[in-house]
Specification:
This protein is α/β, with parallel strands linked by helices and 741 residues long. It has an eight-stranded parallel beta barrel, surrounded by five helices. It binds acetamide and zinc ion.
Length: 741
């Protein structure tokens, strides 16, 4: 069966669409990232216990890996044989050097599955596509007796658009154990990502065993005392295991040994590394330390030389990430050693000292053949030799870096920081409410070729990566409100932040831009949630998709679509949050008050989405700041005091005097407010105890308080003692404003 070729880009999509469009709900249509070329040939192949894997010399470990991938769900240990012959009922693995690196061809007909990789990586990606052509149960770790392992006949020709397709895990602020890191490698490789950047070191923890400096991990890997003590580190054996596991799955692991700042854990272990040598402890709360490695003392460089020597024995990647972000130079300015160095070198600023530091590191790692990668600060400050700039600030930095001759990897805060919430819906991520949401669509639409990039610099754009920072995990606040993972600062929460955004990132870096299509991606993703479920990978369940919302004679008609195959939508029409027992949505809903409707996607009793709802907006009250919530009849009691509570995280953004307004919107009764309290991370930090009534003059309902000890990441709550005066027919909204802003 030959491969039907279309010229390029859009015409290819049309042809693919015409061919595949004929068969409804075909698995082949759902591949993520979308392959470059896919044609269905009308045949089917059925995997059975007698299917043999024939592999070309050199691919034995890959054949074994495929065997291992197919075994748990099918229960069959297929026979793998070294042979180049074309046999029936077989999966053939071979290398075809004429294909691009990481590229592959996959041919499926009734007789055989043939995978030709441009290299071993390409063969592995052929496996991943093959798994996506099999029923979702193939990902299950348990035997699936009732599944028929049928594969649709296809011809696929595929290769990645970018060479660097990555994710960063911040294992310092929260220690993810070896098993989770390996699971994460599986999660990445399922979607053909190939670079895992491990943020191994930060103020809150040193995670890499260095034999010459045992205190780095005996002291630097732990924080807190007694029952509160947390932490951990990877032994050198753990790292060897992780790296080998990753290598077989075409994932390079890049260690980040951060200099000169974000290193308090190292200073806690060896105080001589800082300028003043003052003993410190590994911090229990998130902050960015002012301590830096002393650039004036040679002992700093001796230490780093030793650390790099051991690091490079463990990580074969040609890259070493040296961090370099967010340095503040207070300590260097006060330090006689650093100032002496600065004078001797004839430097004028401490920023120039950091350039000196980086150049020393660059020289140090060069003898190991390593290229340095750093956050965009290191590029800004003018390195002599070519380095890779990991651009996090903004697109302008990316343009500057390419113009200065550096390769870049995009990891932009606004698009690719997966610790940012996916939506601004109340309850999404309480503690991170100050960060603008990064929706699935925003990740999907991201283009590594940023606006304004001259075509001649295009080869310097190596690719992009998502960043999963875990500093929120140590803020000590409740992260989000979906009950099953509430308060869960854990791997489950990392899964939640990762998927489905990782799938969108994968398509952004693998599939040519001209072939990307947001609606198509959403359609394909619908069936992928089942694959993630089968694989035991968590994800953020998307809210029901709104197909239509129409008003006619004061009635709204709402039509929804379930965004997850096999899930259901449940809804309420009384303003109360739906749960897994609420009414099942089966047809469009009519409702008179739009704000009373809420719907959730339910995958299982413990896995469901945040609500889709239509909050009323009050542009007329914008002069009172931003809305923090509302009260409704159901919230108050007649002539009896209750404590009502609203989440003000993200609305209280800095120190200052704030005003909270209680504004009645409708109802015959009024609500009396007998004072308010402001809680930071659950503890009272301010109050205004006067009384006000919602239906009287507005001044009376303005409650003022002062925030003097703001902390990034802290959760703020406003509580009011409220009474429905003479009844409960009272509804209103609450606005908050920073005075004089
Ligand atoms: C960073 O987010 N400080 C790289
Ligand atoms: Zn110093």
């Amino acid at each position: 069966m030959g491969l039907r070729r279309a010229s390029i880009g859009i015409s290819w999509i049309l042809i693919t669409f015409l061919i595949v469009g004929a068969v409804n709900q075909s698995i082949a249509q759902d591949i993520i990232p979308l392959p470059k070329k896919l044609v269905k040939n009308g045949s089917t192949f059925t995997l059975n216990k007698d299917t043999k894997i024939y592999y070309e010399k050199g691919l034995k470990i890959h054949a074994t890996l495929l065997l291992d991938m197919l075994f748990p769900a099918t229960g069959w240990t297929l026979e793998a044989v070294e042979s180049g012959k074309d046999q029936s009922n077989s999966i053939l693995l071979s290398i075809d050097k004429s294909l691009p690196s990481e590229g592959y061809q996959l041919h499926v007909d009734e007789k055989a599955v043939k995978i030709h990789g441009g290299d071993e990586a390409g063969v592995f990606y052929g496996f991943q596509t093959l798994l996506q052509l099999l029923p979702p149960e193939i990902y299950n770790k348990q035997l699936q007796r009732n599944t028929s392992w049928v594969i649709e006949g296809v011809d696929i020709q595929d290769e990645p658009e970018y060479a660097w397709r990555g994710m960063m895990l911040d294992v310092s602020r929260y220690f993810f154990d070896k098993d989770y890191v390996m699971k994460y490698i599986d999660m990445m490789s399922m979607y053909k990502l190939n670079t895992l950047h491990l943020h191994l070191i930060d103020d809150a923890g040193w995670r890499l065993e260095i034999e010459k400096y045992p205190r780095l991990t005996s002291i630097g890997a732990w924080r807190g005392e007694g029952a509160k003590r947390t932490g951990g580190y990877y032994t050198q054996d753990d790292i060897r295991e992780i790296v080998a596991y990753a290598e077989l799955r075409n994932v390079q692991v890049i260690p980040e040994i951060e200099v000169p700042v974000h290193n308090l854990a190292a200073v806690a272990a060896y105080p001589y590394l800082s300028c003043n040598g003052t003993p410190v402890q590994v911090p229990e709360q998130h902050f960015i330390s002012r301590d830096l490695y002393c650039v004036g003392k040679e002992s700093t460089f001796d230490f780093l030389e030793d650390v790099f020597e051991e690091t490079f024995k463990l990580f074969p990647s040609k890259y070493i990430h040296i961090g370099g972000d967010e340095a503040r130079y207070d300590r260097w300015k006060e330090c006689p050693y650093c100032q002496k160095r600065k004078a001797e070198l004839g430097l004028e600023t401490e920023a120039e000292l950091q350039v000196y530091f980086n150049r020393r590191i660059q020289k140090m790692v060069k003898k190991y053949g390593k290229t340095i990668v750093g956050w965009d600060e290191i590029i800004e400050e003018g390195l002599e030799e070519k380095a890779v700039g990991m651009v996090w600030h903004n697109k302008k930095k990316a343009l500057e870096a390419t113009e200065n001759g550096h390769d870049i990897v995009l990891a932009l805060t606004d698009y690719l920081y997966f610790d940012f919430p996916e939506s601004g819906i109340s309850g999404e991520v309480k503690a991170a409410a100050w960060m603008p949401p990064i929706s699935l669509e925003k990740v999907y639409q991201f283009d590594p070729v940023i606006e304004g990039l001259d075509e001649k610099y295009r080869p310097q754009v190596l690719g992009a990566q998502g960043a999963l920072w875990s500093d929120q995990f140590i803020h000590g606040t409740i992260l989000q409100e979906i009950e099953p993972i509430n308060e869960n600062r854990s791997e489950a929460y990392f899964d939640y932040l990762t998927f489905p955004r990782l799938s969108a990132l994968a398509e952004t870096v693998w599939t040519p831009k001209s072939m990307k299509n947001w609606d198509g991606f959403q359609q394909r993703m619908q069936s992928h949630y089942q694959r993630l479920d089968q694989a035991g990978i968590g994800y953020r369940v998307p809210q029901p998709k709104l197909l239509r919302k129409e008003e006619k004679n004061g009635q709204y008609s709402i039509e929804l679509e379930c965004p997850v195959d096999g899930a259901e939508i449940r809804f309420t029409t009384d303003g109360i949050k739906p749960n897994v027992h609420s009414e099942i949505y089966s047809k469009p809903i009519m409702i008179s008050r739009l704000q009373d409707f809420q719907a959730i996607t339910v995958v299982s009793r413990h896995h469901y989405s945040l609500p889709l709802y239509f909050p009323v907006t009050y542009p007329q009250y914008e002069k009172y700041g931003v809305m923090i919530g509302e009260w409704r009849t159901k919230d108050v009691y007649a002539d009896q005091e209750v404590v009502l509570e609203w989440n003000a995280t993200g609305k209280i953004k800095k120190n200052g005097i704030y005003e909270v307004n209680f504004i009645a919107t409708d109802g015959d009764n009024s609500m009396e407010i007998r004072g308010i309290k402001i809680l930071k991370n659950g503890k009272e930090v301010a109050a205004d105890s006067h009384r006000g009534s919602s239906k009287t003059s507005l001044e009376e309902n303005v409650f003022a308080f002062s925030i003097d000890d703001y902390e990034t990441g802290a959760a703020f709550t406003i509580q009011a003692n409220a009474v429905g005066v003479g009844g409960t027919d009272t509804n209103g909204v609450i606005f908050i404003k920073l005075k004089d802003e």
